[in-house]
Amino acid sequence: MKTTKFLIGLVFAAGIALSSCQEEGKRKVRLANEVDSVSYALGISAGSGYAQNLRDLPVEVNKDILINGLIKGLREDTSNYQIKQDEILPLLQAFFANIGKREREEAELRNTQILFENRQREGVQVTNSGLQYRIVEAGKGKTPTKDNIVKVHYVGRLADGTVFDSSVDRGQPAEFPVGAVIPGWVEALTMMPVGSVWELVIPAELGYGDSPVGNIPANSVLFFDVQLLDIVPAKK
């Protein structure tokens, strides 16, 4: 989640450092040796990374106050802290917890709309778990169990159409145990006869839930085109 990313940036920046205030940042410093150059590079790296994290926040941070706090923290100027040390972590945790709650609520509303609209399409069926599927081509082969290994071609997309994974693009079918994939896939595969081509729409709770995975954001509804090619014979 973006808030988690920001928290990591916060710890990084506080630990490594911006050793300048706004006025000092306008003047050039003398880089007399390698340590000076490395110190300067660390500051630039931490500052630019931290600035990116600030842009990800849903609120506008007061940078003047933030820099003041950073300098006090870097100098370990505890006598002049305007917030008690033992209040800092609970304050941040509560703030980011509220942001996380808001993001989840927004995602739930968005996902409800996506799933509602998709289930109106002709031919879409919905299971008790909430998995949505549409049979593009009905297979006539054997239906795999959770203990089988299957060979499939697939394309995975986000709700906005972004392709996040595709065995078709790689030109190589994927093989994996049925019981080792996300719940939405497990349910679908154990209903699909070999030779089937299905369109799947998997609710977030049957996918990766509130955990981001690779380029899949947290709380994402997942769209898949799946072709079940074969059940791979068990090796002796």
Q: Which structural category fits the helices and strands?
A: alpha+beta
How far the N terminus sits from the C terminus, by CA atoms, comes to 44 Å
Provide the residue-averaged pLDDT.
86
Q: Measured on Cα atoms, how large is the radius of gyration?
A: 25 Å
How many separate domains make up the residues? 2
**Relative helix content:** 40-55%
Order of helices and strands, N to C?
HHHHHEEEEHEHEE
CATH 2nd-level architecture of the largest domain: Roll
3D architecture notes:
By secondary structure, the chain is α+β, with helices and mostly antiparallel strands. It folds into two domains: 2-82, no CATH class; 117-232, Roll (Chitinase A, domain 3). 43% of the residues lie in helices and 18% in strands. The chain contains seven helices and seven strands, in the order αααααββββαβαββ. The protein has helices at residues 2-16, 22-26, 34-56, 63-74, 85-119, 167-170, 183-189, and strands at residues 125-126, 132-137, 149-157, 163-166, 174-177, 197-202, 222-232. Strands 1, 2, 3, 4, 5, 6 and 7 form a seven-stranded antiparallel beta sheet that branches. Strand 1 (125-126) and strand 2 form a beta hairpin. The chain is elongated.
